[in-house]
Amino acid sequence: MTQANNNNGMNDKIAVYDLFFRKVPDNGTYAISGGLEEIINYIKNIEVTEEEIEYLRSLNKFDEKYLDAIRNFKFTGDIYAVPDGTVVFPNEPLLTVKAKTFEAQILETMLLVKYNYGSLITTKASRIATSAKGRGVMEFGARRAHEEKAAVIGAKYAVIGGCIATSNTKTGFEFGTNPSGTMAHAYVQMFDSEYEAFLNYAKAYPNDCTLLLDTYDTINSGVVNAIKVAKEYLIPNGYRLKGVRLDSGDLAKLSIDTRNTLDEAGLNDCKIIASNGLDEYLIQDLINQGAQIDVFGVGERLITAKSDPVFGCVYKLSEFDGQPKIKLSEQAIKVTNPGHKKCIRFYDKDTGLALGDALFLKDDLVPKEEYVLYDERSTVKRKSISNYQIRELQIPIFIDGKLVYEIPSIEETIKYTRGELKTLADEIKRLVNPEYYTVSLDEGLYKLKQDTINKEREKIMTFKGVK
Question: Is 0.90 topped by the overall pTM?
Answer without folding.
Answer: yes
